[in-house]
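Lecture 7 notes: from sequence to structure.

We start with a single chain of 397 residues. Read the sequence below before looking at the structure.
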Amino acid sequence: MNPSLRSAALALLTAPVFAAAPVPLSIGPAFYGDPPDETHPWGIHDRNRPQPPRVVAGTPSLPGQPGRPPADAIVLFDGSASALANWESDGKEGGPTKWIVRDGALECVPKSGYIRSKARFGDCQLHVEWAAPREVKGNSQGRGNSGIFLMGLVEVQVLDNHENPTYADGFANSVYGTNPPLANPLRPPGEFQQVDIIFRRPVYRDGRVVDPGYLTVFCNGVLVQDHTPLEGQGGHMRRTKPGPFPESGPLKLQDHGNPVRFRNIWYRPLPPRSSEGGTDGALTPAATTAKRRATAADLRSDAEQRQGTERLLRLAESLVYESEPAATKRVEELATTYTIGLKGLPSTELESRKGEILGVLRAFRYLIKHGKLAAGSAPQRELERIERAQAWEEKKK
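Now the structure, written as C-alpha coordinates:
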Protein backbone atom coordinates (compact mmCIF):
# COMPACT_ATOMS: atom_id res chain seq x y z
CA MET A 1 0.00 0.00 0.00
CA ASN A 2 1.21 3.54 -0.76
CA PRO A 3 2.67 4.77 2.58
CA SER A 4 1.60 8.37 2.02
CA LEU A 5 -2.00 7.29 1.27
CA ARG A 6 -2.07 5.13 4.39
CA SER A 7 -0.70 8.00 6.51
CA ALA A 8 -3.30 10.39 5.14
CA ALA A 9 -6.09 7.93 5.94
CA LEU A 10 -4.84 7.41 9.48
CA ALA A 11 -4.55 11.16 10.04
CA LEU A 12 -8.14 11.68 8.90
CA LEU A 13 -9.53 8.93 11.11
CA THR A 14 -7.62 9.73 14.29
CA ALA A 15 -8.17 13.50 14.29
CA PRO A 16 -9.88 14.90 17.42
CA VAL A 17 -13.53 15.87 17.64
CA PHE A 18 -13.85 19.63 17.30
CA ALA A 19 -17.41 20.18 18.57
CA ALA A 20 -19.91 18.49 20.85
CA ALA A 21 -22.96 16.74 19.41
CA PRO A 22 -26.44 18.11 20.05
CA VAL A 23 -27.25 14.72 21.61
CA PRO A 24 -24.57 13.11 23.83
CA LEU A 25 -23.37 9.91 22.21
CA SER A 26 -23.07 8.25 25.61
CA ILE A 27 -26.82 8.07 26.24
CA GLY A 28 -27.27 4.96 24.10
CA PRO A 29 -25.97 3.01 21.14
CA ALA A 30 -26.81 3.75 17.52
CA PHE A 31 -27.88 1.02 15.08
CA TYR A 32 -29.61 -0.81 17.93
CA GLY A 33 -33.39 -1.23 17.90
CA ASP A 34 -35.92 -1.37 15.09
CA PRO A 35 -35.61 1.76 12.91
CA PRO A 36 -38.25 4.44 12.27
CA ASP A 37 -41.08 3.47 9.95
CA GLU A 38 -43.80 5.17 7.91
CA THR A 39 -45.73 6.46 10.93
CA HIS A 40 -43.08 6.53 13.68
CA PRO A 41 -40.24 9.05 13.31
CA TRP A 42 -38.12 7.40 16.01
CA GLY A 43 -36.52 3.99 16.24
CA ILE A 44 -36.90 1.72 19.23
CA HIS A 45 -34.50 2.88 22.00
CA ASP A 46 -33.58 5.79 19.71
CA ARG A 47 -30.84 7.90 21.27
CA ASN A 48 -31.80 10.87 19.08
CA ARG A 49 -35.31 11.02 20.48
CA PRO A 50 -35.62 14.22 22.55
CA GLN A 51 -34.92 13.86 26.25
CA PRO A 52 -37.78 14.65 28.67
CA PRO A 53 -37.47 18.20 30.00
CA ARG A 54 -36.36 18.52 33.59
CA VAL A 55 -39.13 19.74 35.93
CA VAL A 56 -38.57 20.38 39.62
CA ALA A 57 -41.48 18.69 41.36
CA GLY A 58 -43.76 20.53 43.74
CA THR A 59 -44.91 19.46 47.18
CA PRO A 60 -48.25 17.92 48.24
CA SER A 61 -50.91 19.96 49.99
CA LEU A 62 -51.80 19.46 53.62
CA PRO A 63 -55.23 20.15 55.15
CA GLY A 64 -54.21 23.59 56.37
CA GLN A 65 -51.44 24.34 53.89
CA PRO A 66 -51.51 24.31 50.08
CA GLY A 67 -48.61 22.58 48.39
CA ARG A 68 -46.03 24.10 46.07
CA PRO A 69 -46.72 23.76 42.32
CA PRO A 70 -44.16 22.20 39.98
CA ALA A 71 -41.50 24.62 38.78
CA ASP A 72 -42.96 24.91 35.27
CA ALA A 73 -46.56 25.46 36.41
CA ILE A 74 -48.44 28.61 35.49
CA VAL A 75 -50.08 29.73 38.71
CA LEU A 76 -53.57 31.23 38.49
CA PHE A 77 -54.19 31.57 42.22
CA ASP A 78 -51.59 31.34 44.97
CA GLY A 79 -53.64 32.58 47.94
CA SER A 80 -52.60 36.23 47.67
CA ALA A 81 -55.00 39.13 47.15
CA SER A 82 -52.89 40.25 44.20
CA ALA A 83 -53.74 36.99 42.42
CA LEU A 84 -57.24 38.37 41.81
CA ALA A 85 -55.59 40.24 38.95
CA ASN A 86 -55.39 36.89 37.11
CA TRP A 87 -59.19 36.71 37.00
CA GLU A 88 -62.10 38.69 35.61
CA SER A 89 -65.86 38.60 35.54
CA ASP A 90 -67.30 36.24 32.97
CA GLY A 91 -69.62 38.91 31.66
CA LYS A 92 -69.45 40.05 28.05
CA GLU A 93 -67.26 43.01 28.91
CA GLY A 94 -65.16 41.22 31.51
CA GLY A 95 -64.00 43.59 34.23
CA PRO A 96 -62.97 43.00 37.85
CA THR A 97 -64.52 40.06 39.64
CA LYS A 98 -66.56 40.49 42.80
CA TRP A 99 -65.21 37.24 44.27
CA ILE A 100 -63.01 37.80 47.32
CA VAL A 101 -59.84 36.44 48.84
CA ARG A 102 -60.34 35.24 52.40
CA ASP A 103 -57.76 33.35 54.48
CA GLY A 104 -55.72 32.46 51.40
CA ALA A 105 -58.70 31.15 49.41
CA LEU A 106 -60.62 32.53 46.44
CA GLU A 107 -64.24 32.60 47.59
CA CYS A 108 -67.34 32.78 45.46
CA VAL A 109 -69.65 35.68 46.30
CA PRO A 110 -73.13 34.29 45.56
CA LYS A 111 -74.99 35.99 42.70
CA SER A 112 -71.84 37.81 41.54
CA GLY A 113 -71.49 35.59 38.49
CA TYR A 114 -68.93 33.19 37.08
CA ILE A 115 -65.29 34.21 36.89
CA ARG A 116 -62.74 33.30 34.23
CA SER A 117 -58.98 33.31 34.04
CA LYS A 118 -57.35 35.93 31.87
CA ALA A 119 -54.92 33.24 30.78
CA ARG A 120 -56.16 31.07 27.94
CA PHE A 121 -54.96 27.55 27.31
CA GLY A 122 -55.93 24.24 25.72
CA ASP A 123 -54.56 20.83 26.58
CA CYS A 124 -53.23 20.92 30.12
CA GLN A 125 -52.61 19.35 33.48
CA LEU A 126 -54.78 21.35 35.86
CA HIS A 127 -54.71 21.37 39.66
CA VAL A 128 -57.56 22.89 41.67
CA GLU A 129 -58.42 22.62 45.35
CA TRP A 130 -61.90 23.49 46.55
CA ALA A 131 -63.86 23.41 49.80
CA ALA A 132 -67.60 23.48 50.34
CA PRO A 133 -68.89 25.60 53.25
CA ARG A 134 -68.35 23.95 56.61
CA GLU A 135 -71.91 24.88 57.60
CA VAL A 136 -74.12 22.44 55.70
CA LYS A 137 -77.11 23.98 53.95
CA GLY A 138 -79.32 22.42 51.30
CA ASN A 139 -79.18 19.04 49.64
CA SER A 140 -78.56 17.43 46.26
CA GLN A 141 -77.53 20.14 43.75
CA GLY A 142 -78.22 22.90 46.26
CA ARG A 143 -75.32 22.09 48.55
CA GLY A 144 -71.78 23.38 47.96
CA ASN A 145 -72.31 23.65 44.20
CA SER A 146 -69.82 25.14 41.75
CA GLY A 147 -67.96 23.94 38.67
CA ILE A 148 -64.56 23.84 36.99
CA PHE A 149 -64.97 24.63 33.29
CA LEU A 150 -62.07 23.64 31.05
CA MET A 151 -61.75 26.20 28.25
CA GLY A 152 -65.09 27.45 29.58
CA LEU A 153 -66.77 24.54 27.78
CA VAL A 154 -66.46 21.25 29.69
CA GLU A 155 -67.47 21.12 33.35
CA VAL A 156 -65.93 18.97 36.06
CA GLN A 157 -68.58 19.23 38.73
CA VAL A 158 -67.91 20.75 42.14
CA LEU A 159 -70.51 19.67 44.70
CA ASP A 160 -70.64 18.71 48.37
CA ASN A 161 -71.54 15.05 47.97
CA HIS A 162 -70.27 14.01 51.38
CA GLU A 163 -73.29 12.00 52.53
CA ASN A 164 -75.40 13.91 50.01
CA PRO A 165 -76.69 11.89 47.02
CA THR A 166 -77.70 13.48 43.71
CA TYR A 167 -78.12 12.37 40.09
CA ALA A 168 -75.02 10.42 39.05
CA ASP A 169 -73.90 12.56 36.11
CA GLY A 170 -74.11 15.66 38.29
CA PHE A 171 -72.07 14.18 41.13
CA ALA A 172 -68.84 15.83 42.30
CA ASN A 173 -66.07 15.01 39.80
CA SER A 174 -68.54 14.03 37.10
CA VAL A 175 -68.05 15.32 33.58
CA TYR A 176 -71.29 17.17 34.07
CA GLY A 177 -74.17 15.70 32.13
CA THR A 178 -71.88 13.17 30.45
CA ASN A 179 -70.14 10.74 32.76
CA PRO A 180 -70.45 10.00 36.51
CA PRO A 181 -67.27 9.63 38.59
CA LEU A 182 -65.89 6.17 39.29
CA ALA A 183 -65.93 6.77 43.04
CA ASN A 184 -66.79 9.32 45.73
CA PRO A 185 -63.60 10.12 47.66
CA LEU A 186 -64.78 13.47 49.09
CA ARG A 187 -63.68 14.67 52.48
CA PRO A 188 -66.22 16.31 54.84
CA PRO A 189 -67.47 19.83 54.03
CA GLY A 190 -65.06 22.57 55.06
CA GLU A 191 -62.03 20.48 54.09
CA PHE A 192 -60.22 21.07 50.81
CA GLN A 193 -60.66 18.53 48.02
CA GLN A 194 -57.67 18.18 45.71
CA VAL A 195 -58.58 17.74 42.05
CA ASP A 196 -56.04 16.93 39.34
CA ILE A 197 -57.22 16.94 35.74
CA ILE A 198 -55.59 15.87 32.49
CA PHE A 199 -57.49 17.61 29.72
CA ARG A 200 -57.23 16.96 25.97
CA ARG A 201 -59.61 18.93 23.81
CA PRO A 202 -61.43 17.41 20.82
CA VAL A 203 -59.52 17.74 17.56
CA TYR A 204 -61.32 18.05 14.24
CA ARG A 205 -59.92 18.29 10.74
CA ASP A 206 -61.98 19.26 7.73
CA GLY A 207 -65.12 18.93 9.82
CA ARG A 208 -64.35 15.37 10.91
CA VAL A 209 -63.25 14.17 14.32
CA VAL A 210 -59.58 13.16 14.52
CA ASP A 211 -59.44 12.78 18.29
CA PRO A 212 -62.57 13.11 20.48
CA GLY A 213 -60.59 14.51 23.39
CA TYR A 214 -60.77 13.21 26.91
CA LEU A 215 -60.59 13.95 30.61
CA THR A 216 -58.71 12.01 33.26
CA VAL A 217 -59.43 13.18 36.81
CA PHE A 218 -58.07 12.32 40.23
CA CYS A 219 -59.74 13.57 43.41
CA ASN A 220 -57.80 13.28 46.66
CA GLY A 221 -55.53 10.79 44.91
CA VAL A 222 -58.39 8.56 43.71
CA LEU A 223 -59.06 8.03 39.99
CA VAL A 224 -62.57 9.34 39.29
CA GLN A 225 -62.51 9.85 35.48
CA ASP A 226 -60.54 7.36 33.42
CA HIS A 227 -59.72 8.78 29.99
CA THR A 228 -63.35 9.79 29.52
CA PRO A 229 -64.09 10.71 25.88
CA LEU A 230 -65.50 14.21 25.38
CA GLU A 231 -66.57 14.55 21.71
CA GLY A 232 -67.89 18.03 22.46
CA GLN A 233 -68.99 20.35 25.25
CA GLY A 234 -71.57 19.29 27.80
CA GLY A 235 -74.37 21.28 29.38
CA HIS A 236 -77.31 21.35 31.74
CA MET A 237 -80.20 19.16 30.58
CA ARG A 238 -78.54 18.81 27.15
CA ARG A 239 -76.85 15.78 25.67
CA THR A 240 -73.27 16.35 24.50
CA LYS A 241 -73.09 17.32 20.85
CA PRO A 242 -69.84 16.46 19.07
CA GLY A 243 -68.04 19.45 17.66
CA PRO A 244 -64.67 21.19 17.36
CA PHE A 245 -63.11 23.28 20.11
CA PRO A 246 -61.07 26.45 19.69
CA GLU A 247 -57.30 26.34 20.14
CA SER A 248 -57.54 27.83 23.64
CA GLY A 249 -59.95 29.19 26.18
CA PRO A 250 -60.12 30.37 29.80
CA LEU A 251 -60.67 28.39 32.96
CA LYS A 252 -64.05 29.30 34.41
CA LEU A 253 -65.28 28.83 37.96
CA GLN A 254 -69.01 28.75 38.53
CA ASP A 255 -71.18 30.84 40.80
CA HIS A 256 -74.07 28.53 41.67
CA GLY A 257 -75.16 30.49 44.71
CA ASN A 258 -72.85 28.81 47.27
CA PRO A 259 -69.74 30.38 48.85
CA VAL A 260 -67.38 27.62 47.67
CA ARG A 261 -63.69 28.38 48.22
CA PHE A 262 -60.76 27.62 45.91
CA ARG A 263 -57.02 27.59 46.43
CA ASN A 264 -53.75 26.46 44.80
CA ILE A 265 -54.92 26.72 41.18
CA TRP A 266 -52.27 26.06 38.54
CA TYR A 267 -51.84 24.42 35.18
CA ARG A 268 -49.13 23.03 32.93
CA PRO A 269 -49.64 23.20 29.16
CA LEU A 270 -49.27 19.80 27.51
CA PRO A 271 -47.40 19.19 24.24
CA PRO A 272 -49.34 18.41 21.05
CA ARG A 273 -50.63 14.90 20.54
CA SER A 274 -49.64 12.91 17.49
CA SER A 275 -53.02 13.83 15.98
CA GLU A 276 -51.96 17.48 16.18
CA GLY A 277 -48.49 16.99 14.73
CA GLY A 278 -46.62 16.11 17.92
CA THR A 279 -43.35 14.21 17.75
CA ASP A 280 -44.34 11.05 19.63
CA GLY A 281 -46.76 8.26 18.95
CA ALA A 282 -48.08 7.24 15.54
CA LEU A 283 -47.98 10.27 13.24
CA THR A 284 -49.33 10.74 9.77
CA PRO A 285 -46.95 9.60 7.02
CA ALA A 286 -46.38 13.22 5.98
CA ALA A 287 -45.57 14.35 9.54
CA THR A 288 -43.32 11.32 10.04
CA THR A 289 -41.40 12.02 6.83
CA ALA A 290 -40.92 15.65 7.80
CA LYS A 291 -39.63 14.75 11.27
CA ARG A 292 -37.31 12.05 9.96
CA ARG A 293 -35.95 14.44 7.34
CA ALA A 294 -35.30 17.11 9.98
CA THR A 295 -33.54 14.59 12.25
CA ALA A 296 -31.37 13.39 9.37
CA ALA A 297 -30.43 16.99 8.56
CA ASP A 298 -29.42 17.60 12.19
CA LEU A 299 -27.26 14.47 12.18
CA ARG A 300 -25.57 15.42 8.91
CA SER A 301 -24.85 18.88 10.29
CA ASP A 302 -23.42 17.34 13.46
CA ALA A 303 -21.31 14.93 11.43
CA GLU A 304 -19.58 17.89 9.77
CA GLN A 305 -18.42 19.05 13.20
CA ARG A 306 -16.73 15.71 13.81
CA GLN A 307 -13.69 13.97 12.43
CA GLY A 308 -12.61 10.42 11.66
CA THR A 309 -14.73 7.46 12.68
CA GLU A 310 -17.21 9.63 14.55
CA ARG A 311 -17.95 11.59 11.37
CA LEU A 312 -18.47 8.35 9.44
CA LEU A 313 -20.81 6.83 12.04
CA ARG A 314 -22.79 10.00 12.64
CA LEU A 315 -23.36 10.43 8.92
CA ALA A 316 -24.28 6.75 8.61
CA GLU A 317 -26.77 7.28 11.43
CA SER A 318 -28.53 9.94 9.35
CA LEU A 319 -29.36 7.29 6.75
CA VAL A 320 -31.58 5.53 9.30
CA TYR A 321 -33.96 8.49 9.00
CA GLU A 322 -33.49 9.48 5.35
CA SER A 323 -31.80 7.67 2.49
CA GLU A 324 -30.39 10.85 0.97
CA PRO A 325 -28.18 10.10 -2.09
CA ALA A 326 -25.41 12.59 -1.31
CA ALA A 327 -25.16 11.38 2.30
CA THR A 328 -25.14 7.75 1.14
CA LYS A 329 -22.29 8.47 -1.27
CA ARG A 330 -20.34 10.31 1.42
CA VAL A 331 -20.75 7.38 3.85
CA GLU A 332 -19.38 5.02 1.24
CA GLU A 333 -16.41 7.35 0.57
CA LEU A 334 -15.60 7.71 4.27
CA ALA A 335 -15.92 3.96 4.79
CA THR A 336 -13.56 3.33 1.90
CA THR A 337 -11.01 5.73 3.40
CA TYR A 338 -11.46 4.06 6.76
CA THR A 339 -10.78 0.54 5.50
CA ILE A 340 -7.78 1.76 3.49
CA GLY A 341 -6.33 2.99 6.75
CA LEU A 342 -6.77 -0.45 8.30
CA LYS A 343 -4.99 -2.41 5.59
CA GLY A 344 -1.58 -3.63 6.55
CA LEU A 345 -1.99 -2.91 10.27
CA PRO A 346 -0.52 -5.63 12.50
CA SER A 347 -2.91 -7.94 14.30
CA THR A 348 -2.06 -6.42 17.68
CA GLU A 349 -3.07 -2.93 16.55
CA LEU A 350 -6.27 -4.24 14.99
CA GLU A 351 -7.03 -5.96 18.30
CA SER A 352 -6.57 -2.70 20.15
CA ARG A 353 -9.17 -1.13 17.83
CA LYS A 354 -11.59 -4.05 17.96
CA GLY A 355 -14.52 -2.11 19.43
CA GLU A 356 -14.21 0.67 16.89
CA ILE A 357 -13.90 -1.70 13.89
CA LEU A 358 -16.81 -3.88 14.96
CA GLY A 359 -18.84 -0.75 15.58
CA VAL A 360 -18.40 0.34 11.96
CA LEU A 361 -19.20 -3.18 10.77
CA ARG A 362 -22.29 -3.28 12.97
CA ALA A 363 -23.46 0.01 11.40
CA PHE A 364 -22.99 -1.43 7.90
CA ARG A 365 -24.90 -4.59 8.76
CA TYR A 366 -27.74 -2.62 10.34
CA LEU A 367 -28.08 -0.30 7.35
CA ILE A 368 -27.95 -3.22 4.93
CA LYS A 369 -30.53 -5.18 6.92
CA HIS A 370 -32.95 -2.24 6.84
CA GLY A 371 -32.39 -1.38 3.19
CA LYS A 372 -30.35 1.79 3.65
CA LEU A 373 -27.13 0.50 2.02
CA ALA A 374 -26.50 -2.12 -0.64
CA ALA A 375 -24.82 -5.35 0.46
CA GLY A 376 -21.42 -6.43 -0.80
CA SER A 377 -19.56 -3.10 -0.90
CA ALA A 378 -15.77 -3.08 -0.71
CA PRO A 379 -15.71 -1.56 2.83
CA GLN A 380 -18.12 -4.22 4.10
CA ARG A 381 -16.07 -7.02 2.59
CA GLU A 382 -12.84 -5.65 4.09
CA LEU A 383 -14.36 -5.28 7.55
CA GLU A 384 -15.71 -8.82 7.43
CA ARG A 385 -12.31 -10.09 6.25
CA ILE A 386 -10.70 -8.47 9.32
CA GLU A 387 -13.40 -9.95 11.55
CA ARG A 388 -12.63 -13.44 10.25
CA ALA A 389 -8.85 -12.98 10.31
CA GLN A 390 -8.94 -11.80 13.93
CA ALA A 391 -11.30 -14.65 14.85
CA TRP A 392 -13.73 -12.15 16.35
CA GLU A 393 -16.66 -14.13 14.94
CA GLU A 394 -15.71 -17.14 17.08
CA LYS A 395 -15.63 -15.01 20.22
CA LYS A 396 -19.14 -13.60 19.77
CA LYS A 397 -21.59 -14.87 22.36
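The chain is about 25% helix and 20% strand. Keep this in mind for problem set 3.
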